[in-house]
Design brief:
The structure is a single chain. The chain is α+β, with helices and mostly antiparallel strands. Helix content is 41%, strand content 17%. Helix 2 runs antiparallel to helix 3 and helix 5 packs across helix 6.
Length: 281
């Protein structure tokens, strides 16, 4: 099943789609699809943008992305191993319009509400991982049973929302390309100053039109988004480079001065960069 920007062609006669990806770099274009996605990351690390929020993904993550949630996985260039991800795609009506409304399945109804903003699973991961690893050798009927068991465990597990805002309308292909170009430009150039003129040109829009367009679709300004990209990359540098000074990390991530970096880091992460380093080590 090839994933295209903003569309996932579903193979004929398959209500539930199982996909195993073994790639150096994951599909890194912003996209959305009507199917709910449950993914287990066996190997791989990078940046995950979901809705309005920039996260990271790493080995042993179990992630749920709701229907039509715009998202992009961007593998870290420094990750030397092959990225391995197991995914189930399905929609609420895939087994019939009222299947998931059956009284017998009442205990998992919250799953569909919780998935709307995406979620990262924090507990029951060992049980979930074992279920994902069985999928490869199962037939279609067995996979449906495994999906129900996975959803049941997710419903009972502790979890955290991945995003706080999701643009509810489907993107057109042109809109998807525009937002993808903006996201890619920010992620590839965050260490340099980026002006409003520059990013508006990437989007092929006037400055005022771009500001309105971006805010409507992400619920934040472009520069708020850019700061979050810089902070997420700072976290990775702090984690992977214990000998780097906070001031050098600040500079490497595009901040003009360390005081501003410290302030923004604490606003987003709740602790200063120095305390974040102590927590990690």
């Amino acid at each position: 099943m090839k994933v295209l920007p903003f569309k996932i062609p579903k193979p004929e006669n398959e209500a539930l789609v199982y996909q195993e990806e073994r790639l150096r770099v994951l599909y890194d274009q912003l996209h959305q699809h009507s199917e709910i996605q449950i993914s287990y990351v066996e190997k791989g690390a990078g940046t995950l943008i979901v809705g309005d929020t920039i996260n990271d993904f790493s080995p042993n993550d179990i992630l749920v992305l709701g229907s039509d949630v715009p998202h992009v996985f961007r593998t870290d260039v420094n990750f030397s191993e092959e990225t391995v991800v197991y995914t189930l795609f399905f929609d609420r009506n895939c087994f019939g319009k009222h299947f998931f409304d059956l009284p017998d399945l009442e205990s998992i109804h919250d799953f569909f509400t919780d998935s709307e903003y995406g979620m990262k699973i924090l507990t029951r991961k060992n049980k979930l991982t074992k279920l994902f690893l069985k999928l490869k050798n199962q037939n279609k009927v067995q996979r449906i049973g495994t999906l129900l068991r996975i959803i049941d465990h997710i419903t009972k597990a502790e979890k955290t929302a991945i995003s706080s805002f999701v643009y509810k309308k489907k993107y057109t292909d042109d809109e998807g390309k525009r937002m993808n170009d903006v996201f890619n430009y920010a992620m590839e150039n965050y260490m340099e100053p980026i002006t409003l003129e520059e990013i508006s040109e990437v989007a092929n829009m006037s400055k005022n039109a771009f500001c309105r367009y971006f805010k409507k679709r992400t619920n934040k300004t472009f520069f708020q988004f850019l700061i979050e990209i810089r902070i997420e990359n700072a976290c990775k540098l702090i984690y992977n480079n214990p000998d780097h000074s906070i001031s050098s990390i600040s500079e490497l991530c595009g901040f003009q001065n360390t005081a501003n970096f410290n302030r923004k880091f604490k606003e987003i992460k709740g602790v200063t960069p120095s305390h974040f380093r102590l927590q990690r080590f």
